[in-house]
Sequence to fold (283 residues):
Amino acid sequence: MPTTAQDAMPQDSPRPPPPPSVAAFRERLASLDGNLPRRLQQCADHLARHPDQIALSTVAQVAQGAGVPPSAMMRFCQVLGFSGYAEMQRLFRDALTTAQPDYATRLANLKAGGAGQPATLVAEFVEAGRQSMEALARNLDETALNQAVETLARARTIHLAGFRRSFPVASYLAYVFDKLGVPAVLHDGVAGLGHRSTLQPTDALLAITFAPYSDETLALARDARSRGMPVVFLTDPPATTLGPLGDTILTVTEIDFGAFRSLSAAIALALSLAVAVAARRET
Fold:
């Protein structure tokens, strides 16, 4: 099928080298966001939302999911630097063999590596936490932080969402906001109750989620946006797919040890955000 104006790109730019890793793939997607013809942007949006489909789906299946012809998906692969869909798929299939192991495997690996002693574990997790905190201080987006504080301080009620690994951060924020006298609602999903009836345009949603993102959190963010509420995300980089759902995105990188990640930096950023919001509301 010939290339159309909807998926055409300038031909005078040399094709970049293919991304060497899935992380680099995500970064390249982020760099292209908003600078693509309509069909190619559809490809980018779909791949950003469903990267897990690439390794096991055909180009026709992925193109159908994106709502474009296979030729547009093939063209988009070339824009990313791949020779075609097969090369892009190979990158994701190779990544399957190096994906994060399950928790039993992680524990077994730690024992095999001689790091199973309690004091050793404490030292290693302290070091990972230290590196995470230093990275947070070094890479903090102050503009985004100030915007998040302003948004949340204006809200009548702050809604908090965080599931799975994010739940400790969301529940801790609910505790801190309560102690600071800031009205907040924790959407914890207990007994299947989502508290969505409490969402109001005068409120704001603070959603905490880390890749792979929680479906429950994303659904709540979409609901909040549909009701005219501002949405602030606290997540890990690059957060490419969260852009359309969030007004402000705060990112934090956690250094892992033995494939276990603590929440040291995320908790520090969340606590700072809560205190700053409470202080702003009093002025």
